[in-house]
Amino acid sequence: MATTTADNTTRNKRGEAGHSGEADSREATWTMYSFFCASSAALSAFNNGYNIGSPNAPELVIRACQSVDISKRGGTFPGCTPMSTGLWGFAIGGFALGGLLGSFFLASPLMSRIGRRNTLIVSSIIYVVAGLLMALSPVPAQLIVGRIVVGIATGIGSVTAPVYVGEVATIKRRGMFGSLIQLFLVVGILVAQVLGLVLSTAAGWRLLLGLTIVPAVIQALMLCVCVESPPSLAARGRTDAATAALMRLRKGYDTTAEMDAIIESQKRNETDGEASMSMIQLLKSPMRKIVFIAFAIHALQQLTGINSVFFYSTGMFTGAFGAETARAVTVGIGALNVGMTFVSSALVERAGRKSLVLASLAGMTLMSLLVVLGSIFHQNVAVIVAVFLFVAVFAIGLGPIPWLILPELFPTKAVGAASSMAIAVNWLCNCCVSLLFPLINEGLESYSYLVFVVTGAVGFIFIWYSLTDTKGKTVEQVQAELLGHSNAAAADPATSAATIRTEKS
């Protein structure tokens, strides 16, 4: 293939910028600027967590007008917006509905057209609009619309932020940088729950919901001094800009080899008709079996009931302990979630992915059963202990692994389509739990967590028989184990053949 003038110019610029004393950027651990860019993107996850946790504590103030003098209602912004249990469930579930719309329909087109960084800035602007809608809502309808709009911003960020973080991270610390997403998310939940202790009042709840504007504005300002990711620039033909961005991200290192690898990867994408598979192509390929496994893992993350705790725990505990104690318990749950996230970061690289998912499912199923028994026999302390352990075992497996396992299940050409579909399934199941749990809890009362006992048990059996452990294995080895050599060869002949040759040798 002939080398173009532009290619020569780009290589010369890289060669002039680097000098023989600089180490290869592929061996870099991290740089301050790359960490700053990754943290800027991870604020999307913080806002995600904040909007999961913010409606929990003030639920009874907002919808049941608890501690609000109804006789003084009136004016532009009344002290509460009365709504039924079902309507409140729709307000909470609207967040997940918006997340589904943002992640499945908007994130990918925006990233392709305007880049990762600008897409995150767009999501920050949408957060500001949503915060104003919620804080200034005079009626339930506007509050619900605000929850849907904030979900759209979150859906866009939930797809874009991990991609941007992965593309600006150094090769050697991609896992560490990626863990920022989960860490920022659980910290966002905790911050919302702590603020809920003091802002669950007739005037305070509007401020609590509207504060989502603050991290959005901070993120937009931080992103203005961040570079676009080099692969995104290269994909849009801006090779010189990609080179300059990578040099800034890897200051002090020679970026020549890393940039050459990015350019070669883009050239393969342009010349290989199957370098990037569509969703339809993926579902028609032999890899559809693995797609359904990915769907199941993401569905189980939600259908085992974790958001019944993060969305509704204050309302659940208020009857037994009173509003103040219930809010304190909710903050304790959030703090435990943050602590266990650090534990899971250590465990995930030592234990197998499959074993941690199975441990999560077994523990959550058992704790759901304990919640039911404690509720039937009015053992409130047992219920609280069970809920705390429920969150703890979720955090070590089903919390982080559905997100990190996708690139380990699918080759590069398929991971984009697989991620979009799996995340959409995640949001859809999130929406179902958010919408239906208040009605389930109202109808089944003490037996409501039996639903999660069933889904956890069924999920445990499915994962036991269908998933192989991916720890320490190449994608090709995982595909060969899940599909068999013949089907793996049909899915990706070159890589599968390489795997077979390696095993024979």
From TrEMBL:
What is the membrane topology here? Multi-pass membrane protein
Q: Which SUPFAM superfamilies match?
A: MFS general substrate transporter (SSF103473)
User: Which keywords belong to this entry?
Assistant: Membrane, Transmembrane, Transmembrane helix, Transport
- Where is composition skewed (Basic and acidic residues) in this entry? 13-23
Query: Which top-level group of life is the source organism from?
Result: Eukaryota
Which Gene Ontology MF annotations are present?
Answer: hexose transmembrane transporter activity
Q: Please report which protein family the annotation says this sequence is part of.
A: Belongs to the major facilitator superfamily. Sugar transporter (TC 2.A.1.1) family.
Protein name as annotated: General substrate transporter
